[in-house]
Design a protein that fits this description.
- By secondary structure, the chain is α+β, with helices and mostly antiparallel strands.
- The protein has helices spanning about 15-25, 45-50, 70-80, 90-115, 120-145, 160-165, 170-180, 190-200, 200-205, 215-225, 225-230, and strands at about 5-10, 35, 60, 65.
- It folds into two domains: about 10-80, Glutaredoxin, CATH 3.40.30; about 90-220, Up-down Bundle (Glutathione S-transferase Yfyf (Class Pi), Chain A, domain 2), CATH 1.20.1050.10.
- Strands 2-1-3-4 form a four-stranded mixed β-sheet, covered by helices on one side.
- Helix 4 packs antiparallel against helix 5 (about 120-145) and helix 4 (about 90-115) runs parallel beside helix 6.
- The longest helix is centred in the middle third of the chain and has 27 residues, at about 90-115.
- The model has no long low-confidence stretch (mean pLDDT about 95).
- Bound molecules: glutathione and 2-acetamido-2-deoxy-beta-D-glucopyranose (NAG) (2 copies).
């Protein structure tokens, strides 16, 4: 495909934000060079490409950097022909952007807050916030998909699918560490079935870097307050 010369992703294997950029590129069927960053020793290229946040992901297209995963996904969608990532209908586009922002602004801080909680009370509060946010997304899925589509995006994965789908390997890590299911068949039956379909898609399955649950578990164990100290309270 024309125009994809010099597509480079600066990333981190364990980052859901990086994963979504790579899955968006997969959706368009374009190939890219993936470069793993060491966040304790950021490369000159990363610092130069994202001087404001100094974070991954960065997409470098023909030498020009684009930052912030949601912005990059929209850039990729506009740049490449092929299946749309965002819906084409303006109202549906707005709705998809709303739910992507909700996932990042509410759902993510809730489960991340749970991981970083310093007391049992704080952890319980964040668990409740997480489960309440995922319920909203369950209802959103029912509405978005008209009750019978396979994905938020319809017959194939789109913007909200990729944004929420990028969290799934972290949800699995949360399940292993805390024995807490953020998505399951009894609490969120639609999302539980959706998640199974999502991880089975080529876009999600054949992605570089490969989402690594063990690595996410290690991250949680590094981040969280000693589990024993909290669970014994
Ligand atoms: N809102 C950003 C979040 C990106 C982000 O938090 N990246 C983390 C890795 S998961 C990072 O690069 N952190 C490096 C740092 O904070 O120094 C996006 O959507 O791209
Ligand atoms: C930091 O990264 C540079 C290359 O970008 C490398 O040469 C150097 O050895 C690294 N330093 C450490 C402490 O890992
Ligand atoms: C499903 O998840 C909810 C919330 O985490 C939990 O209360 C419930 O026990 C889980 N159900 C099953 C069958 O595991």
């Amino acid at each position: 495909m024309a125009g994809n010369e010099g597509l480079k992703v600066l990333g981190l294997q364990v980052s859901p934000f990086v994963l979504r950029v790579c899955m968006a590129l997969n959706t368009k069927g374009v190939s890219y060079e993936y470069v793993e960053e060491d966040l304790s020793n950021k490369s000159e290229l990363l610092l130069k490409s994202n001087p404001v946040h100094k974070k991954v992901p960065v997409l470098i297209h023909n030498g020009k950097p684009i930052c912030e995963s949601l912005v990059i996904m929209q850039y990729v969608d506009e740049l490449f022909a092929g299946r749309s990532i965002l819906p084409t209908d303006p109202y549906e586009r707005a709705t998809a952007r709303f739910w992507a922002a909700y996932a990042d602004d509410k759902l993510l801080p809730a489960w991340y807050g749970m991981v970083k909680a310093q007391s049992a009370e704080e952890r319980a509060e964040k668990v409740e916030e997480t489960l309440s946010a995922i319920q909203h997304m369950e209802v959103a899925f029912a509405k978005c998909s008209g009750g019978n589509a396979a994905f938020f995006g319809g017959d194939s994965i789109g913007y909200v699918d990729i944004v929420l789908g990028s969290f799934l390997f972290w949800f699995e890590a949360v399940r292993r560490v805390y024995d807490l299911e953020i998505i399951n068949a009894s609490n969120t039956p639609l999302l539980a079935a959706w998640a199974e379909r999502f991880v089975g898609t080529v876009e999600a399955k054949e992605v570089v870097p490969v989402p690594d649950v063990d690595m996410a578990v290690q991250c949680i164990n590094k981040l969280h307050a000693p589990a024993a100290a909290i669970s014994s309270q």
